[in-house]
Amino acid sequence: MSITRVIYFTIFFGRCPNGFKACPDALKDQVIAWRRDFHEHPELGNQEFRTAGIIAAHLKSLGLEVQEKVAITGVVGILRGGKPGPVVALRADMDALPVTERGNLPFKSKVEVVYNGQKTGVMHACGHDSHVAMLMAVAQILASEKANLAGTVKFIFQPSEEGVYNDKGEKIISGAELMVKEGVLENPKVDAIFGLHIEAQSDLGLIEYKPEATMAGVDQLDIKVNGKQAHGAYPWAGVDPIVISSQIVLGLQTIVSRSVNISENPAIVTVGAIHSGIRQNIIPESAHMIGTIRTFDPAQRELVHRRINEIATNIAISGGGKADVTIGTGYPVTYNNPKLVENMLPTLVGISGKEG
Known about the structure:
- With 356 residues, this protein is of the alpha+beta class.
- The chain contains 8 helices and 17 strands.
């Protein structure tokens, strides 16, 4: 059995591959316990000290070579198989989000922080607690088969997948980029890397896959609207940046609905926060908005960026103000190697029991 088939047979709880000492079903309770523990104790990007400590201790107990403090809080485990072969990396993200958990589960997060000047909860709202728990189990299963593995497996636990932002909403660091810069894909050099993401909207037991472009490229949107301060009772004496900002938000929605050919590729422009003013009867000097941009190809990305600049700039001018637009270029589109997808498909079908 090839190393990639071994990996995918062990990621999901299913039948035990012939001869395996450790089986997914046998670890089910442990994985659930890990996941619930991480869920109850979430940590924001580059603050995953407790999570990283648990991961590192587990990998060391399995006899793996362990690298800690990679890209601040990242952990890498290296399992060298007993036979020659490729170097395959498996990756999971560790960080949580500044989100207050509203449910009442017994393992509900009770962590609170001050984030960008506001008190908020911290929650594993994107499933990274599950990702970490699953990869820890995969490491345990594959470590039990070290002598039979043809190749090397790198277990990469990445910090700060969600990014770390300053008080202006600007992304200042990202875990994947920093890990690559620090050499996570070298020594030994990785031949292929695999990851997965849980999906709450999918049916239980369903494995979704897609060759080529599968997840959008992500960019950060930052617009400062400059107006003129005035008393709220005399709006004609000022230039209202809040009104201008409202019009810009509406104008940005026409990019996807009117400028982008969404029959070819989807796109998203979302404004996630607007900040302006400190008092109910004062028209403020400026307004600040931040958001996210998602696109699926370079030409579409360029078009969306251009239209954001045009719309924000010209709406601000029409209202007597000025818009300063900054677009921070983030990660490009996630591209799945078609050949690797093709090679993995029989295994994925074998796990799920059918192909949709």
